[in-house]
Design brief:
Number of helices: 6
Structural class: alpha+beta
Order of helices and strands: HEEEHEHEHEEEHH
Strand order of the largest sheet: 1-8-2
Largest sheet: 3 strands, antiparallel
Distance between the termini: 32 Å
Helix content: 25-40%
Number of strands: 8
Length: about 180
């Protein structure tokens, strides 16, 4: 279920809140920032980029333009971010697979000569998977993590307390702890 599906569920009154990693686009919804995310490149260790750059080295996305990508399907927040990054850089890389699950995308990269763009918190920074992780440099497009609800909804005391608790959670970057 992608961010677009969750936004639709809120608007149809199927759910009150959703946690979304997206770029706010719907004026009928309230997006409260929980955490700023960084987008990283995951590259199978057999890919050319992995042979040129050590694990954790910041790279320009253009360095991967000739690699074969795995992508989440449209409707996922990371897909919208990926498409915006490609558009801003004038890139049209080959996409071998469009998959509906980010974990399946990561496993595909781990076991095939492919790469993908991924939020830092989803990336394995401990070397368990057979891929390298590269922070992106010179990218001005970001993806953030929000709690989202319908604009103008009456917030009960329980709902307000829930939002307070959510905002008290520590927001850290996985990259800050593991790579830098």
């Amino acid at each position: 279920c992608g961010s677009g599906d969750l936004e639709k569920s809120i608007l149809e009154n199927n759910i009150d809140f959703a946690f979304l990693a997206t770029t706010p686009q719907n004026p009928a919804l309230t997006y409260e920032l929980i955490k700023e995310e960084r987008v990283v490149l995951l590259a199978n260790k057999e890919c050319e980029i992995a042979k040129r750059f050590a694990f954790g080295t910041p790279v320009d996305i253009e360095e991967a333009q000739n690699e074969v990508f795995v992508s989440c399907k449209k409707g996922h927040g990371i897909r919208a971010t990926q498409d915006a990054i490609f558009l801003s850089k004038g890139l049209a890389p080959k996409v071998a697979f469009e998959i509906d699950n980010i974990e399946v995308c990561k496993n595909t990269v781990a076991y095939s000569r492919t790469v993908m763009l991924c939020p830092d918190d989803y990336a394995d920074l401990n070397g368990v998977y057979f891929y390298n992780v590269y922070p992106l440099k010179n990218v001005d497009i970001y993806r953030n993590f929000f709690v989202c609800y319908k604009k103008g909804i009456y917030l009960t005391g329980y709902m307000k307390r829930f939002l307070e608790i959510v905002h008290q959670l520590p927001a850290h970057h996985a990259l800050d702890e593991k790579l830098f």
